[in-house]
Amino acid sequence: MPGSRFAVFAALALSLACGDGGGGPSRDKFAGTWDATKLEFTNTANTSEKVDIIALGGTYVIDLASSGSYSAVLTPPGGAPEVTTGTWSASADIFTLKETGTSGNMKFDYDLSGNTLTASGANTEFDFDQDDVQEPARLSVVLVRQ
Question: Exposed/middle/buried for 101, CB within 10 Å: 0-12, 13-18, 19+?
């Protein structure tokens, strides 16, 4: 029965996207407050060009709620704190952040080992040459649970 097979597939896909079963980790493994020790943007046109906001003196703290919501505060070096909120999910190998009010999401490959969450490869943009023009970039972050 094609219809019932589709329903089973849809339910499995939904459970994987939410990180609740299907071989994915429990949301409780991610829930908590995390501090970034690395927040690095890599220019996709020139992969040797990288900017690590934390190494430059910035901070990033994200609170992942077990409900699947998050709030984050990015404080760039010498700048004012920027607060974002949204939802998060984790499958067996993809960690996703969906910021409130945006149409896209950021999908990372990740490794959760103890109190360290390493996430890399999300497509984003960053102004590498500070000319007010965003260039395509990849984002990598290392988070340590508080």
Answer: exposed
